[in-house]
Model the fold of this input.
Amino acid sequence: MNFLELLKTDFVIKTDSRDVESGDIFLALKGTRADDEEMNSHSFVKQAISNGASYAIVSEDLPWISDEKLIKVADTFEAYAKIGNHFRKKFKGKVIGITGSSGKTSTKEALKQMLSHFGKVYATPKNLNSQLGVPQVLCDIDMTADFAIVEMGMSHVGEMQKLTEMVEPDIAIVTNVYPMHLDYFNSVEQIAFEKSQIFNGLSENGVAIYNADSLQVDVLKKNTRNHKTISFGEKSRDICLKKVDNTISHISINKEIIQFALPEDNIAFRYNSLAVIAVAMALSLELKKLFPLIKEIKPADARGTIMPIKYNGKRITLVDDSYGGGHAVNMEIGLQRLMNAKGKRKIAVIGNMAELGNQMKKQHKRVGKILNNLKIDKIFLVGEPTKWIADELSNHKNFVRVEKLEELGTQVEDMLKFGDVLFIKGARYSSQVYKLADKLKK
Done:
């Protein structure tokens, strides 16, 4: 059997030989992952066959495996993309693609929660949004779902074009554009252009949705081309955010003022709710049914989750925003959650941000200025770049700064008292402050 013949059949694809069951097809991935690490699964083909795989898709010669069991392709990563697109084409529901510098996962989760009131929803699990993760999401798509929400990330030029060709979204969203991944891009304008390539995968009747308050919004607007568009934000003419009083959002749609309650008042929930409304409009859903439901939106795990926990017999409130550091705006949103949370002392563990290129110093100094103006009882800084945050803390002389998380020891845990509110946020891999959050939650 060759690859094209395979695509005409019904099959189950597996990329982990340990998961292979009788009749599955094993795909031996070989190439560079999103984290720039090399991978090669050809050494596991024999195990996959012995576990019952009908065939293995390979790009290398494997003389110790019968040719009858092998489907040869030039590039198994490209084959994975084609297989993902194969399953997407079989899906009869609406596909919603989401990208953006930040807010992809929280918008996905908000959409998943809200659209579940209108039909069956399949959504990207966790954050499988890379060149390797998206085809897996499409291969696992629930064909009985009414809506499929696919998160699409990028960190290199050209990646979004490949993803959108694979996903072929009916609705495509750009949540925002910020100076992130600047280790791999020359400018924020280039980031905006690459993000906007998601619109290239839309069908003739597809809908392009974008944040009108985003940086480089003109780049986003230009690349919607001839598609129907819906924008949202304070500068939008479609879904215009007028004001928020406490947790009551006031928006304008077609000159009609509409009010609805948010779960809490912060920038993330304001814009997530607008994105959800935009998708509902694109799907022609009943907005009157949607508005009362928005207050039920819950943040994604470790992305601003507020939870009571008990550690060493002390009950505290953990604001867990430890999945990633993002940029200064992300930090500001997280710190807003800390300040809004009810409790006695406010404690912040701030890890460094990453992949900010020539914006690294500027973004950290901006965070420092934000922190300096907040009434926080104790600040812990983790990571070498946080030296620039420390430079701005003239109002917080007793902060602690370390290069690595391990250097903190148990200082944070030892100082916790009943009623404290603890905020944790930082770049996942370089600061590793998520390990502290995980430790406290156990």
